[in-house]
Amino acid sequence: MANSVSGIQIPAPLYRPGDRPDFAHLNIPQAGGLPRPDVAADAKDLRDHAFGLVRVLNHNHCAIGDWAPELSHDELLKGLRTMVLTRAYDERMLKMQRTKRLSFYMKSLGEEAVSIAAAHALRDDDMLFPSYRQQGALIYRGADLVDMMCQCISNSRDNLLGRQLPVHYARKDLNWFSISGNLATQFPQAVGWSMANRLKGKDGIASSWIGEGSTAEGDFHSACTLASTYKAPTLLNVVNNQWAISMHQNISGGAAETFASKAIGFGIPGIRVDGNDYLAVYAVTKWAAERARAGHGATLIELFTYRGEAHSTSDDPSRYRPKDEWKSWPLGDPVERLKSHLIMDGVWSDEEHADLEADSKNEVTKAWKESVSYGTLEDGPHAPVQTMFEDVFAEQPWHIRRQRQALGH
Ligand SMILES: Cc1ncc(C[n+]2csc(CCOP(=O)(O)OP(=O)(O)O)c2C)c(N)n1
Protein backbone atom coordinates (compact mmCIF):
# COMPACT_ATOMS: atom_id res chain seq x y z
CA MET A 1 0.00 0.00 0.00
CA ALA A 2 1.27 3.52 -0.73
CA ASN A 3 0.09 7.10 -0.39
CA SER A 4 1.16 9.77 -2.80
CA VAL A 5 2.12 13.36 -2.01
CA SER A 6 2.73 15.53 -5.10
CA GLY A 7 3.51 12.39 -7.07
CA ILE A 8 6.01 11.13 -4.50
CA GLN A 9 5.13 7.63 -3.32
CA ILE A 10 5.05 7.06 0.43
CA PRO A 11 4.63 3.37 1.28
CA ALA A 12 2.40 2.58 4.26
CA PRO A 13 1.77 -0.64 6.16
CA LEU A 14 -1.39 -2.54 5.30
CA TYR A 15 -2.64 -2.56 8.87
CA ARG A 16 -2.65 -0.05 11.68
CA PRO A 17 -3.80 -0.32 15.34
CA GLY A 18 -7.43 -1.41 15.48
CA ASP A 19 -7.34 -3.15 12.06
CA ARG A 20 -7.73 -6.90 11.75
CA PRO A 21 -4.48 -8.16 10.19
CA ASP A 22 -4.83 -10.57 7.32
CA PHE A 23 -1.77 -11.90 5.50
CA ALA A 24 -3.72 -13.66 2.75
CA HIS A 25 -1.99 -11.47 0.17
CA LEU A 26 1.40 -13.02 1.00
CA ASN A 27 2.41 -15.71 -1.42
CA ILE A 28 3.54 -18.52 0.90
CA PRO A 29 4.63 -21.51 -1.19
CA GLN A 30 4.29 -25.10 -0.02
CA ALA A 31 7.26 -26.73 1.75
CA GLY A 32 9.64 -28.73 -0.42
CA GLY A 33 8.96 -26.81 -3.64
CA LEU A 34 12.42 -25.41 -4.39
CA PRO A 35 15.36 -27.61 -5.39
CA ARG A 36 18.65 -27.56 -3.48
CA PRO A 37 21.21 -26.46 -6.07
CA ASP A 38 24.83 -27.54 -6.18
CA VAL A 39 26.93 -25.30 -3.93
CA ALA A 40 29.00 -24.32 -6.97
CA ALA A 41 25.89 -23.17 -8.91
CA ASP A 42 26.10 -19.94 -10.87
CA ALA A 43 24.28 -17.09 -9.11
CA LYS A 44 22.33 -16.31 -12.27
CA ASP A 45 20.71 -19.76 -12.14
CA LEU A 46 19.30 -19.13 -8.66
CA ARG A 47 16.71 -16.46 -9.40
CA ASP A 48 13.81 -18.63 -8.18
CA HIS A 49 15.48 -18.88 -4.79
CA ALA A 50 15.57 -15.09 -4.47
CA PHE A 51 11.85 -14.69 -5.17
CA GLY A 52 10.54 -17.95 -3.71
CA LEU A 53 10.78 -19.25 -0.15
CA VAL A 54 12.77 -22.26 1.00
CA ARG A 55 10.58 -24.26 3.38
CA VAL A 56 11.16 -27.72 4.82
CA LEU A 57 8.45 -28.29 7.46
CA ASN A 58 5.01 -28.80 5.91
CA HIS A 59 1.62 -28.25 7.55
CA ASN A 60 1.74 -31.81 8.96
CA HIS A 61 5.09 -30.99 10.62
CA CYS A 62 6.99 -33.37 8.31
CA ALA A 63 10.37 -32.42 6.82
CA ILE A 64 10.11 -32.72 3.07
CA GLY A 65 11.98 -31.91 -0.14
CA ASP A 66 15.57 -31.48 -1.27
CA TRP A 67 16.43 -29.09 1.52
CA ALA A 68 15.39 -31.43 4.38
CA PRO A 69 18.66 -31.76 6.35
CA GLU A 70 19.91 -34.97 7.90
CA LEU A 71 19.98 -34.08 11.56
CA SER A 72 19.79 -36.42 14.52
CA HIS A 73 17.00 -36.04 17.05
CA ASP A 74 19.60 -35.09 19.66
CA GLU A 75 20.78 -32.22 17.50
CA LEU A 76 17.22 -31.00 16.94
CA LEU A 77 16.44 -31.30 20.62
CA LYS A 78 19.49 -29.15 21.39
CA GLY A 79 18.10 -26.54 18.98
CA LEU A 80 14.68 -26.68 20.63
CA ARG A 81 16.15 -26.43 24.13
CA THR A 82 18.22 -23.42 23.13
CA MET A 83 15.19 -21.68 21.64
CA VAL A 84 13.13 -22.28 24.78
CA LEU A 85 15.98 -21.12 27.03
CA THR A 86 16.50 -17.99 24.92
CA ARG A 87 12.80 -17.16 25.20
CA ALA A 88 12.89 -17.64 28.97
CA TYR A 89 16.01 -15.44 29.19
CA ASP A 90 14.35 -12.69 27.11
CA GLU A 91 11.18 -12.85 29.19
CA ARG A 92 13.09 -12.51 32.45
CA MET A 93 15.26 -9.66 31.20
CA LEU A 94 12.20 -7.73 30.03
CA LYS A 95 10.68 -8.11 33.51
CA MET A 96 13.92 -6.93 35.09
CA GLN A 97 13.96 -3.86 32.84
CA ARG A 98 10.35 -3.09 33.73
CA THR A 99 11.27 -3.17 37.40
CA LYS A 100 14.30 -0.91 36.78
CA ARG A 101 16.91 -3.60 37.42
CA LEU A 102 18.40 -2.94 34.00
CA SER A 103 18.22 0.08 31.77
CA PHE A 104 17.35 -1.36 28.39
CA TYR A 105 16.59 -4.67 26.68
CA MET A 106 15.79 -6.16 23.25
CA LYS A 107 13.86 -9.43 22.86
CA SER A 108 14.03 -11.85 19.95
CA LEU A 109 10.53 -13.36 20.32
CA GLY A 110 9.55 -15.19 17.14
CA GLU A 111 13.05 -14.91 15.67
CA GLU A 112 14.80 -17.60 17.72
CA ALA A 113 15.26 -20.02 14.80
CA VAL A 114 16.89 -17.30 12.69
CA SER A 115 19.94 -17.20 14.92
CA ILE A 116 19.97 -20.59 16.65
CA ALA A 117 19.57 -22.76 13.54
CA ALA A 118 22.29 -20.68 11.85
CA ALA A 119 24.70 -21.10 14.78
CA HIS A 120 23.93 -24.83 14.61
CA ALA A 121 24.88 -24.95 10.90
CA LEU A 122 28.15 -23.04 11.34
CA ARG A 123 31.47 -24.17 12.80
CA ASP A 124 32.73 -22.80 16.09
CA ASP A 125 35.70 -21.18 14.32
CA ASP A 126 33.38 -19.28 11.97
CA MET A 127 33.26 -15.66 13.09
CA LEU A 128 29.86 -14.16 13.87
CA PHE A 129 29.07 -10.47 13.31
CA PRO A 130 25.58 -10.24 14.80
CA SER A 131 23.04 -7.50 15.34
CA TYR A 132 21.42 -7.01 18.73
CA ARG A 133 18.76 -9.70 18.16
CA GLN A 134 20.90 -12.86 17.84
CA GLN A 135 21.31 -13.65 21.54
CA GLY A 136 20.09 -17.18 20.75
CA ALA A 137 23.24 -17.84 18.71
CA LEU A 138 25.41 -16.71 21.62
CA ILE A 139 23.56 -19.07 23.96
CA TYR A 140 23.90 -21.86 21.38
CA ARG A 141 27.66 -21.23 21.29
CA GLY A 142 27.79 -21.89 25.01
CA ALA A 143 27.77 -18.44 26.62
CA ASP A 144 26.96 -18.58 30.31
CA LEU A 145 23.70 -16.76 31.08
CA VAL A 146 25.34 -15.23 34.15
CA ASP A 147 27.98 -13.56 31.95
CA MET A 148 25.30 -12.25 29.60
CA MET A 149 23.23 -10.86 32.47
CA CYS A 150 26.27 -9.23 34.06
CA GLN A 151 26.92 -7.40 30.77
CA CYS A 152 23.31 -6.20 30.80
CA ILE A 153 23.60 -4.78 34.31
CA SER A 154 27.21 -3.56 34.02
CA ASN A 155 28.27 -5.01 37.34
CA SER A 156 31.73 -6.08 38.48
CA ARG A 157 31.62 -9.22 36.29
CA ASP A 158 30.69 -7.34 33.07
CA ASN A 159 33.44 -8.39 30.62
CA LEU A 160 32.92 -5.08 28.76
CA LEU A 161 33.51 -3.00 31.91
CA GLY A 162 30.30 -1.00 31.53
CA ARG A 163 31.30 0.44 28.17
CA GLN A 164 28.50 -1.03 26.09
CA LEU A 165 24.74 -0.72 25.98
CA PRO A 166 22.97 -3.80 27.45
CA VAL A 167 22.67 -6.72 24.97
CA HIS A 168 25.63 -5.43 22.92
CA TYR A 169 27.73 -8.44 23.84
CA ALA A 170 31.32 -9.06 22.68
CA ARG A 171 33.04 -12.44 23.16
CA LYS A 172 36.41 -13.07 21.60
CA ASP A 173 36.55 -16.56 23.09
CA LEU A 174 33.30 -17.50 21.31
CA ASN A 175 34.19 -15.84 17.98
CA TRP A 176 31.45 -13.30 18.56
CA PHE A 177 32.35 -9.85 17.26
CA SER A 178 31.35 -6.78 19.35
CA ILE A 179 27.79 -5.75 18.52
CA SER A 180 27.63 -2.24 17.19
CA GLY A 181 24.72 0.12 17.87
CA ASN A 182 25.40 1.77 14.52
CA LEU A 183 23.25 -0.24 12.16
CA ALA A 184 24.81 -2.35 9.39
CA THR A 185 28.47 -1.60 10.21
CA GLN A 186 28.93 -5.31 10.91
CA PHE A 187 28.27 -6.22 7.25
CA PRO A 188 31.45 -4.72 5.69
CA GLN A 189 33.39 -5.73 8.81
CA ALA A 190 32.34 -9.37 8.27
CA VAL A 191 33.36 -9.24 4.62
CA GLY A 192 36.76 -7.75 5.50
CA TRP A 193 37.35 -10.29 8.27
CA SER A 194 36.47 -13.21 6.01
CA MET A 195 38.90 -12.00 3.35
CA ALA A 196 41.71 -11.51 5.87
CA ASN A 197 41.11 -14.95 7.33
CA ARG A 198 41.21 -16.54 3.87
CA LEU A 199 44.42 -14.69 3.07
CA LYS A 200 45.90 -16.28 6.19
CA GLY A 201 45.10 -19.66 4.64
CA LYS A 202 42.28 -20.54 7.05
CA ASP A 203 38.87 -21.86 6.02
CA GLY A 204 36.75 -20.25 8.76
CA ILE A 205 34.04 -18.04 7.24
CA ALA A 206 32.14 -15.01 8.53
CA SER A 207 28.41 -14.71 9.06
CA SER A 208 26.66 -11.43 9.75
CA TRP A 209 23.07 -10.38 10.43
CA ILE A 210 21.25 -7.11 9.90
CA GLY A 211 17.55 -6.26 9.93
CA GLU A 212 15.72 -5.49 6.69
CA GLY A 213 15.49 -1.81 7.73
CA SER A 214 19.29 -1.69 7.86
CA THR A 215 19.57 -2.59 4.15
CA ALA A 216 18.75 1.08 3.54
CA GLU A 217 22.19 1.90 4.99
CA GLY A 218 25.15 2.43 2.65
CA ASP A 219 27.10 -0.23 4.55
CA PHE A 220 24.74 -2.91 3.20
CA HIS A 221 25.55 -1.89 -0.37
CA SER A 222 29.31 -1.56 0.14
CA ALA A 223 29.41 -4.96 1.84
CA CYS A 224 27.58 -6.57 -1.10
CA THR A 225 29.95 -4.90 -3.58
CA LEU A 226 33.05 -6.01 -1.67
CA ALA A 227 31.72 -9.53 -1.20
CA SER A 228 30.85 -9.80 -4.88
CA THR A 229 34.14 -8.40 -6.20
CA TYR A 230 36.40 -10.49 -3.98
CA LYS A 231 34.21 -13.62 -3.63
CA ALA A 232 34.50 -13.16 0.11
CA PRO A 233 33.52 -16.20 2.18
CA THR A 234 30.72 -14.39 4.00
CA LEU A 235 27.08 -15.08 4.82
CA LEU A 236 25.07 -11.89 4.61
CA ASN A 237 21.85 -12.49 6.54
CA VAL A 238 19.01 -10.01 6.23
CA VAL A 239 16.42 -10.67 8.92
CA ASN A 240 13.14 -9.46 7.46
CA ASN A 241 11.00 -9.30 10.58
CA GLN A 242 8.60 -6.88 8.84
CA TRP A 243 9.35 -3.89 11.08
CA ALA A 244 12.27 -1.52 11.69
CA ILE A 245 10.95 -0.05 14.94
CA SER A 246 7.76 1.63 13.58
CA MET A 247 8.85 1.60 9.94
CA HIS A 248 7.25 -1.13 7.85
CA GLN A 249 9.49 -3.26 5.60
CA ASN A 250 7.95 -1.75 2.48
CA ILE A 251 9.93 1.46 3.11
CA SER A 252 13.42 -0.11 3.06
CA GLY A 253 12.31 -2.73 0.51
CA GLY A 254 11.23 -0.07 -1.98
CA ALA A 255 9.98 -1.50 -5.24
CA ALA A 256 11.98 -4.70 -4.84
CA GLU A 257 9.76 -7.73 -4.48
CA THR A 258 12.02 -9.39 -1.90
CA PHE A 259 15.18 -8.46 -0.01
CA ALA A 260 16.93 -11.59 -1.34
CA SER A 261 16.42 -10.29 -4.88
CA LYS A 262 18.67 -7.33 -4.08
CA ALA A 263 21.57 -9.81 -4.39
CA ILE A 264 20.91 -10.30 -8.09
CA GLY A 265 22.35 -6.95 -9.09
CA PHE A 266 25.54 -7.79 -7.20
CA GLY A 267 25.88 -11.15 -8.96
CA ILE A 268 25.76 -13.13 -5.74
CA PRO A 269 23.10 -15.72 -4.84
CA GLY A 270 20.10 -14.44 -2.89
CA ILE A 271 18.06 -17.07 -1.07
CA ARG A 272 14.82 -16.35 0.73
CA VAL A 273 13.99 -18.73 3.55
CA ASP A 274 11.14 -19.29 5.99
CA GLY A 275 12.81 -17.86 9.09
CA ASN A 276 10.41 -19.65 11.43
CA ASP A 277 11.33 -23.08 10.07
CA TYR A 278 14.37 -24.29 12.04
CA LEU A 279 15.19 -26.97 9.49
CA ALA A 280 15.02 -24.60 6.54
CA VAL A 281 17.22 -21.98 8.22
CA TYR A 282 19.73 -24.70 9.12
CA ALA A 283 19.74 -26.11 5.58
CA VAL A 284 20.16 -22.78 3.79
CA THR A 285 22.90 -21.64 6.18
CA LYS A 286 24.72 -24.96 5.71
CA TRP A 287 24.48 -24.60 1.91
CA ALA A 288 25.80 -21.04 1.95
CA ALA A 289 28.59 -22.00 4.39
CA GLU A 290 29.68 -24.93 2.20
CA ARG A 291 29.64 -22.66 -0.83
CA ALA A 292 31.74 -20.00 0.90
CA ARG A 293 34.20 -22.53 2.32
CA ALA A 294 34.66 -24.08 -1.11
CA GLY A 295 35.69 -20.69 -2.55
CA HIS A 296 32.47 -19.81 -4.42
CA GLY A 297 31.88 -16.62 -2.46
CA ALA A 298 29.14 -14.93 -0.47
CA THR A 299 25.40 -15.55 -0.25
CA LEU A 300 22.72 -13.10 0.79
CA ILE A 301 20.06 -14.88 2.85
CA GLU A 302 16.71 -13.21 3.54
CA LEU A 303 15.12 -14.71 6.65
CA PHE A 304 11.41 -14.11 6.35
CA THR A 305 9.97 -13.78 9.84
CA TYR A 306 8.02 -11.51 12.18
CA ARG A 307 9.17 -9.47 15.21
CA GLY A 308 6.80 -10.76 17.90
CA GLU A 309 7.64 -8.13 20.51
CA ALA A 310 8.42 -4.45 20.73
CA HIS A 311 11.61 -3.30 18.99
CA SER A 312 13.17 -2.66 22.40
CA THR A 313 12.03 -1.65 25.86
CA SER A 314 11.94 1.96 24.57
CA ASP A 315 9.29 1.14 21.96
CA ASP A 316 5.50 0.82 22.09
CA PRO A 317 4.27 -1.10 19.02
CA SER A 318 0.58 -0.64 19.95
CA ARG A 319 1.00 2.86 18.49
CA TYR A 320 1.75 1.67 14.97
CA ARG A 321 0.57 -1.92 14.38
CA PRO A 322 -2.36 -4.15 15.36
CA LYS A 323 -1.83 -5.72 18.74
CA ASP A 324 -2.34 -9.30 17.61
CA GLU A 325 -0.49 -9.08 14.31
CA TRP A 326 2.09 -11.72 15.30
CA LYS A 327 -0.71 -14.20 16.12
CA SER A 328 -1.89 -13.93 12.50
CA TRP A 329 1.57 -14.42 11.03
CA PRO A 330 1.13 -17.25 8.51
CA LEU A 331 4.54 -18.83 9.22
CA GLY A 332 3.68 -19.45 12.87
CA ASP A 333 6.01 -19.70 15.84
CA PRO A 334 9.44 -21.34 15.35
CA VAL A 335 9.37 -23.03 18.77
CA GLU A 336 5.91 -24.52 18.24
CA ARG A 337 6.85 -25.73 14.78
CA LEU A 338 10.01 -27.56 15.81
CA LYS A 339 8.24 -28.93 18.89
CA SER A 340 5.39 -30.32 16.72
CA HIS A 341 7.90 -31.88 14.33
CA LEU A 342 9.66 -33.67 17.17
CA ILE A 343 6.36 -34.82 18.70
CA MET A 344 5.32 -36.13 15.30
CA ASP A 345 8.62 -38.03 15.09
CA GLY A 346 7.84 -39.65 18.44
CA VAL A 347 10.81 -38.23 20.35
CA TRP A 348 9.09 -35.43 22.27
CA SER A 349 5.80 -34.78 24.07
CA ASP A 350 3.72 -31.89 25.40
CA GLU A 351 4.63 -32.98 28.93
CA GLU A 352 8.35 -32.96 28.21
CA HIS A 353 7.97 -29.58 26.59
CA ALA A 354 6.17 -28.16 29.62
CA ASP A 355 8.97 -29.52 31.82
CA LEU A 356 11.56 -27.94 29.54
CA GLU A 357 9.83 -24.55 29.82
CA ALA A 358 9.73 -24.83 33.62
CA ASP A 359 13.38 -25.96 33.81
CA SER A 360 14.46 -23.11 31.53
CA LYS A 361 12.68 -20.56 33.71
CA ASN A 362 14.37 -22.02 36.80
CA GLU A 363 17.78 -21.94 35.11
CA VAL A 364 17.25 -18.27 34.24
CA THR A 365 16.06 -17.41 37.75
CA LYS A 366 19.10 -19.12 39.24
CA ALA A 367 21.40 -17.26 36.82
CA TRP A 368 19.79 -13.94 37.74
CA LYS A 369 20.31 -14.57 41.46
CA GLU A 370 23.95 -15.35 40.84
CA SER A 371 24.38 -12.31 38.55
CA VAL A 372 23.19 -9.81 41.12
CA SER A 373 25.61 -11.31 43.64
CA TYR A 374 28.32 -9.63 41.49
CA GLY A 375 26.58 -6.26 41.78
CA THR A 376 23.41 -4.50 40.69
CA LEU A 377 22.88 -1.71 38.21
CA GLU A 378 21.86 0.70 40.95
CA ASP A 379 24.33 -0.08 43.69
CA GLY A 380 27.23 -1.73 41.89
CA PRO A 381 29.98 -2.61 42.29
CA HIS A 382 30.74 -1.56 38.72
CA ALA A 383 34.05 -1.59 36.87
CA PRO A 384 36.67 0.60 38.62
CA VAL A 385 36.59 4.19 37.31
CA GLN A 386 40.18 4.13 35.98
CA THR A 387 39.26 1.36 33.53
CA MET A 388 37.45 3.92 31.39
CA PHE A 389 40.84 5.30 30.37
CA GLU A 390 42.27 1.94 29.40
CA ASP A 391 42.33 -0.25 26.27
CA VAL A 392 42.16 2.47 23.63
CA PHE A 393 45.63 3.99 23.37
CA ALA A 394 48.87 1.98 23.62
CA GLU A 395 50.37 5.13 25.12
CA GLN A 396 47.98 7.49 26.82
CA PRO A 397 48.02 11.01 25.30
CA TRP A 398 48.55 13.89 27.68
CA HIS A 399 44.94 15.11 27.71
CA ILE A 400 43.62 11.66 28.68
CA ARG A 401 46.29 11.40 31.40
CA ARG A 402 45.21 14.80 32.68
CA GLN A 403 41.53 13.76 32.80
CA ARG A 404 42.47 10.58 34.64
CA GLN A 405 44.53 12.54 37.18
CA ALA A 406 41.67 15.01 37.64
CA LEU A 407 39.54 12.07 38.74
CA GLY A 408 42.22 11.07 41.21
CA HIS A 409 43.53 7.98 39.35
C1 LIG B 1 23.06 4.16 11.61
C2 LIG B 1 21.89 4.07 12.54
N1 LIG B 1 20.72 4.68 12.22
C3 LIG B 1 19.65 4.60 13.05
C4 LIG B 1 19.74 3.94 14.24
C5 LIG B 1 18.53 3.87 15.19
N2 LIG B 1 17.91 2.54 15.09
C6 LIG B 1 18.27 1.56 15.95
S1 LIG B 1 17.49 0.12 15.61
C7 LIG B 1 16.66 0.79 14.30
C8 LIG B 1 15.73 -0.07 13.48
C9 LIG B 1 16.44 -1.19 12.79
O1 LIG B 1 15.54 -2.03 12.14
P1 LIG B 1 16.00 -3.32 11.37
O2 LIG B 1 17.29 -3.06 10.68
O3 LIG B 1 14.88 -3.78 10.52
O4 LIG B 1 16.32 -4.37 12.52
P2 LIG B 1 15.35 -4.96 13.65
O5 LIG B 1 15.44 -4.05 14.84
O6 LIG B 1 13.99 -5.07 13.09
O7 LIG B 1 15.91 -6.30 14.02
C10 LIG B 1 16.98 2.15 14.16
C11 LIG B 1 16.42 3.02 13.11
C12 LIG B 1 20.98 3.34 14.55
N3 LIG B 1 21.14 2.65 15.68
N4 LIG B 1 22.02 3.40 13.69
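^ thiamine diphosphate complex. The chain has a mean pLDDT of 97. The domain at 34-140+170-312+324-344 is CATH 3.40.50.970 (Rossmann fold).
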